[in-house]
Amino acid sequence: MSKVTRFAGRDPGPNARVAGFMAHLRDHGLRLGVGETALAVEALTHVRASDPVEARLALQAVCTGCADEVAGFEDLFDAYWRNDGRVREKVVPSTSASTEHMRNSRSAQGPETDGNGRMDSPDDSGGEGEAMVSGEGRLVGSRLQNLMKTDLRDLVSPEDIRDAETVARRLALALRDRRSRRRRAAKKGAMLDMRRVLRQSLSTGGEPVRLPRRKRPDRPVRIVALCDVSGSMTIYARVFLAFLAGLMRADSAADAYLFHTRLVRITEALRDPDGLRALNRLTLLADGFGGGSKIGAALDQFAATHARRLVNGRSVVVILSDGYDTDPPEVLGDALLRLRRRGCRIVWLNPLKGWAGYAPVAAGMAAALPHLDHFAAAGTLSDLAALEQEFTRL
Amino acid sequence: MSWNDLQTDMAQQGYVASDDLAMALYLALSLGRPLLLEGAAGVGKTEVARVLAAVKSTQLIRLQCYEGLDAGQAIYEWNYQRQLLAIRAAAEDGETGSAVEARIFSDDYLLERPLLKAIRQAVAPVLLIDEIDRADEEFEAYLLEILSEFQISIPELGTITATTRPMVILTANGTRDLSDALRRRCLYAHVDYPDRATELAILRARIPGIEDLLAGQIVGFVQALRREELEKTPGVAEMLDFAAALSGLGIADLNSDPQVLQATLATLLKTRTDRDNIPTEVAQRLAGRAA
């Protein structure tokens, strides 16, 4: 049997199929508008659209916009167009259909329980209420990737993001040391560069036509945040994700990643102007949320890939994690050492540190300690806000 | 012309393009859209534009972006010196003010910079906007306007509309994230380090006389080197330099002389840390495995 998806007889035609494909891509987090749909149809007229490889390459050139999207495109293409000969009934999602299919657990009619816990946190009724826990990754061997998806929109509310944004903005400001004593030539600046004004006026017969300026250069500190969303961290995820979302909106140079058993870059997703939509896109990126954690491997991957490009002496790497790692502790130590060699400062915010009598005895945490510039507690938004003072000193 | 033809034409010019890239380039030409190429340094992004210009036998106009690039450097600028001279001369001749003004704000006194030049060509050129991510965000916004309208307004002269639409190629290697608006306006292709077979084809195309044994070793060695932990991963251009250095020295076998290999590594490893990371033993091991 052919691998190609068969379309239902009442299917309105190729244009609608392409539109359906675009909707399919949009559902998977690609940002595409009507303009791209038209362009995609036009692009297909320039190639032999009946050839799956050509069609894929053409649509890929039109629809993708960054390396991550390119990497996932073939799967998305196959899922829609080469669905093992299955009949695709509905090509264009109608508005009513989309509300049904959209994964919005807020409107979903799930079985109600009496517990007041949220999806991922146990309720506080002393363990008597029936909690719906999604973190079975804690019991299952952590080598298995937890494929259950957690709806992050259910974890974080728009108000959280707004509060977190204020805190994140203050922290970003505290971290950024913008003052530089030197002045450099610049397009716009407070001071005239008199020396160059005079020199250049010579070529215009003594008339100062061009006015070169000088300013104190901006030396922004880039904040790179890595957030652990493994099973043991789920209850803090709400605060941290809101914090990351706030940070991304407050500071255009900041960069954010999630890790559990893999490392996922979420900067692009979190920059979405609509806060809730940003979290929705994050949900799609973060399958495996609430599973096991491989902090060492994730940090090692970060040091080997993204860090080469983004981390330098003017970076602060903020790690939000409890330090419970399933990898041997040396992996974590080595990864931090490698990261450290790039000249950045490393801050580890551990929600457990706030507990009375906490000692960093988890093997991973103990291995990490010598490489950290700052090790602090952070479980709530107010904890994060309190860090401002200490961050200015970094 | 189909995209396969374009791929073949490019191969004749010595550029081995992947399917993704050839298709994106072909569509960019057919649809009249700019093409955004992203990828690590040294994978041949800039070269795409040069080869495309050769294939289309047209001119390549290049705009190298840098921090602080402004409209005066990218679009147009008045030739102040000539204008001042003209004013001085006019004052002596007793020319009227309005006549001088009309004269000094004419085409003769305009310095064309790459963007203006690109839209005023008789034959559509290839416009390469190199390392767009180094330019400021404000310049990016300005560029968007030009790329969508293909017209430039000069207050003193009026609006200049494109006589031909240039084929626009933008390159970026991730110094900063580009705006969504720019990404949406462009077609996109990600250029990656080539795989072994492709890299071998590139090497053969660029250095035709090279022996099979050495070519295989060079490519194997460089591919292995890319997997090592380096600050600057060697790109295709470095690989070609390395090959040129070896064949220039008359080496036929990579394993023949460890000292020469170590010396020629200067073409591949460009920082001190990287040199220290690949001492003779490591280089020998990699070379041995590459064979």
Automatic annotation (TrEMBL), chain A:
<feature type="region of interest" description="Disordered">
    <location>
        <begin position="91"/>
        <end position="133"/>
    </location>
</feature>
<feature type="compositionally biased region" description="Polar residues">
    <location>
        <begin position="93"/>
        <end position="110"/>
    </location>
</feature>
<dbReference type="Pfam" id="PF05762">
    <property type="entry name" value="VWA_CoxE"/>
</dbReference>
<feature type="domain" description="VWFA">
    <location>
        <begin position="220"/>
        <end position="393"/>
    </location>
</feature>
<dbReference type="InterPro" id="IPR002035">
    <property type="entry name" value="VWF_A"/>
</dbReference>
<dbReference type="InterPro" id="IPR036465">
    <property type="entry name" value="vWFA_dom_sf"/>
</dbReference>
<dbReference type="InterPro" id="IPR008912">
    <property type="entry name" value="Uncharacterised_CoxE"/>
</dbReference>
<dbReference type="InterPro" id="IPR011195">
    <property type="entry name" value="UCP010256"/>
</dbReference>
<protein>
    <submittedName>
        <fullName>Uncharacterized conserved protein, contains von Willebrand factor type A (VWA) domain</fullName>
    </submittedName>
</protein>
UniProtKB/TrEMBL annotation, chain B:
<dbReference type="InterPro" id="IPR011704">
    <property type="entry name" value="ATPase_dyneun-rel_AAA"/>
</dbReference>
<dbReference type="InterPro" id="IPR027417">
    <property type="entry name" value="P-loop_NTPase"/>
</dbReference>
<dbReference type="Pfam" id="PF07728">
    <property type="entry name" value="AAA_5"/>
</dbReference>
<dbReference type="InterPro" id="IPR003593">
    <property type="entry name" value="AAA+_ATPase"/>
</dbReference>
<protein>
    <submittedName>
        <fullName>MoxR-like ATPase</fullName>
    </submittedName>
</protein>
<dbReference type="InterPro" id="IPR050764">
    <property type="entry name" value="CbbQ/NirQ/NorQ/GpvN"/>
</dbReference>
<dbReference type="GO" id="GO:0005524">
    <property type="term" value="F:ATP binding"/>
</dbReference>
<dbReference type="GO" id="GO:0016887">
    <property type="term" value="F:ATP hydrolysis activity"/>
</dbReference>
<feature type="domain" description="AAA+ ATPase">
    <location>
        <begin position="31"/>
        <end position="198"/>
    </location>
</feature>
